[in-house]
Predict the structure.
Amino acid sequence: MFNPIRLAANNPGPMTGPGNNTYLLVGREGDGVLIDAGVGEPAHLAAVAGHLVGCGARLARVLVTHGHADHVSGAAALASAHADARFYKYPRPDEDAACDVAWIPLADGDRVPAGNESLLALHTGGHSPDHVVFWHEATRTAFTGDLVMPGGRVMIDWSRGGDLGRYLEALERLLALRPRALLPAHGAAVRDPGRLLSEHLEHRRMRERQVIEVIGTGRDTVQAITESIYDGLDPALVPAARENVRAHLDKLRRDGRAFEVDARWALGRT
């Protein structure tokens, strides 16, 4: 039976909200698979161990959706507690070595055993270059990492390789699979996936229109555009808003709709 157990990573904060979700799958043969590694918080480690003991299982694999700290920094603590566990993620050579584990590289289309089932790795770069969604075909359930955020919006981490165009493509790719459920890293399970995916797409299109409008009024720096669009935003979230604005500007430049000269932006082509 496909029955993911949601385990809180216990890392609330301005960027994580109540904290991350991780998901544990346990098969009849006693192999446990954890999706995302959390941050090494003791209560999370204890919850993982407790569920494994209760099921008479061992942690066989940890599948990481991407290399942001709230998803990956607990890997070393899990490796220390579960010596036989193997760790999988889509490669990002410039950052992967920061975690003291031996990564098994994932590629788009790889299948990974998960209990008595298998999960299909879908490379969904955009939020970050190494982002992966894990897809369970039989139930049309997707473990979506940070691809979507119910009740919020996803940051495009431009300064660390985030790409808005690829993010939109990733949303469209998952929408085309017609999922029945999304299990995100932040927020509750999503039982109306088509609506949420479409909302995320429309939100980014709306932001693009806003960026174009604001440039047209003469506010032409990243800071000025951010202050205009995100007026009144919690100061703790302003750096993420700047990342989003920069990602939109980069997409507009690639589309031939905007250009930059001396850190100032204008509409049209150079």
In short: The mean pLDDT is 95. The chain has two domains: 5-203, 206-267.
